[in-house]
């Protein structure tokens, strides 16, 4: 197995305020890793560092064998690192179809783009039925699916998601998790999933990484995390 993403002794924060302290872990190719921890533990700060929105104060992030330090935000996307930030980054004024096309614009020729959009509709049935609806008209679950579809249309190697289950009904959360696992199984997509919804995230993850106040508390197979009562009570809240 090879690591697609390698985080090594990463320190990062905001101005003079350190948040992440010496965090190290890796995500194997075609693996699903759940990034867990309470509010304020540093999950979003870590994802922002991976995206290139925050510069680490020390340590390194390697993606697909390349040190990302000198690589800009857009170049990271072009190298196959896709993000779905918290809050579902879709353009609400545009239709479902237009949002998807926007996600694939840089990757496909105008002639290829239609086929790529159709592949997303084949994966997300509800989106196909809503293709001409504007973002405003979508339910929370449909928005999350659209944000996901928009991120994966360009066929990234790694998909990074920040709290995709936030505010969604349990049935919709289950659908999203099923889609992520199916994507991994059928396309070999690698997934890093930050979640407060620990049970849902661990239900699809091979591995769980737990942050507590900016430090790494655990990096273990999902089954081991759920069976460790002390860890569950202290950091995972169930
Ligand atoms: P949540 O689930 O609430 O998003 P999180 O685990 O993602 O939590 P972060 O958002 O990374 O945690 O926050 C980690 C720490 O960094 C918190 O103490 C937070 O107050 C602080 N922080 C977050 N954003 C900023 C910012 N823009 N400027 C200064 N401090 C920040």
What does this structure look like?
The protein folds into two domains: 1-80 and 158-238, P-loop containing nucleotide triphosphate hydrolases (Rossmann fold, 3-Layer(aba) Sandwich); 90-155, no CATH class. Helix content is 40%, strand content 27%. It contains ten helices and ten strands. The strands form two sheets. A six-stranded mixed beta sheet has the order 6-7-8-3-9-10, sandwiched between helices. A four-stranded antiparallel beta sheet has the order 2-1-4-5, covered by helices on one side. A hairpin with a 2-residue loop joins β9 (207-212) and β10 (215-221). Residues 14, 17, 19, 37, 39-45, 196 line the site of adenosine-5'-triphosphate.
Task: Give descriptors for this structure.
238 residues; alpha/beta; Rossmann fold; 2 domains; six-stranded mixed β-sheet; four-stranded antiparallel β-sheet; 10 strands; 40% helix; binds adenosine-5'-triphosphate; ABC_transporter-like_CS; ATP-binding; branched-chain amino acid transmembrane transporter activity; transport
Layout of helices and strands:
Elements: E1 3-14, E2 17-28, E3 32-36, H1 43-51, E4 58-63, E5 66-67, H2 73-78, E6 81-84, H3 96-104, H4 110-123, H5 125-129, H6 140-152, E7 158-162, H7 170-187, E8 190-194, H8 198-204, E9 207-212, E10 215-221, H9 222-227, H10 229-236
Parallel strand pairs: 3-8, 3-9, 6-7, 7-8
Antiparallel strand pairs: 1-2, 1-4, 4-5, 9-10
Helix pairs in contact: 3-4, 3-6, 7-8
The protein binds adenosine-5'-triphosphate (ATP).
Residues 14, 17, 19, 37, 39-45, 196 line the site of adenosine-5'-triphosphate.
């Amino acid at each position: 197995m090879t690591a697609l993403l390698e985080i090594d002794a990463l320190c990062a924060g905001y101005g003079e305020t350190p948040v992440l302290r010496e965090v190290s872990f890796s995500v194997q190719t075609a693996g699903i890793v759940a990034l867990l921890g309470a509010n304020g533990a540093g999950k979003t700060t870590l994802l922002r560092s991976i995206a290139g929105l925050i510069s680490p104060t020390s340590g390194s992030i390697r993606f697909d064998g390349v040190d990302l330090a000198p690589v800009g935000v857009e170049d990271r996307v072009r190298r196959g690192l896709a993000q779905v930030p918290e809050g579902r980054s879709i353009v609400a004024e545009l239709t479902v179809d237009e949002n998807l096309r926007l996600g694939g614009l840089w990757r496909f020729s105008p002639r290829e783009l239609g086929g790529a959009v159709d592949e997303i509709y084949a994966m997300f049935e509800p989106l196909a039925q809503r293709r001409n609806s504007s973002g405003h008209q979508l339910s929370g679950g449909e928005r999350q699916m659209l944000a996901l579809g928009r991120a994966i249309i360009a066929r990234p190697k790694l998909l990074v998601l920040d709290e995709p289950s936030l505010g969604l009904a349990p049935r919709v959360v289950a659908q999203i998790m099923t889609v992520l696992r199916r994507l991994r199984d059928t396309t070999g997509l690698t997934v890093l999933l930050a979640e407060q919804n620990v049970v849902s995230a661990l239900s699809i993850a091979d591995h769980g990484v737990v942050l507590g106040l900016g430090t790494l508390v655990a990096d273990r197979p999902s089954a081991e995390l759920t069976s460790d009562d002390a860890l569950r009570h202290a950091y995972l809240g169930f």
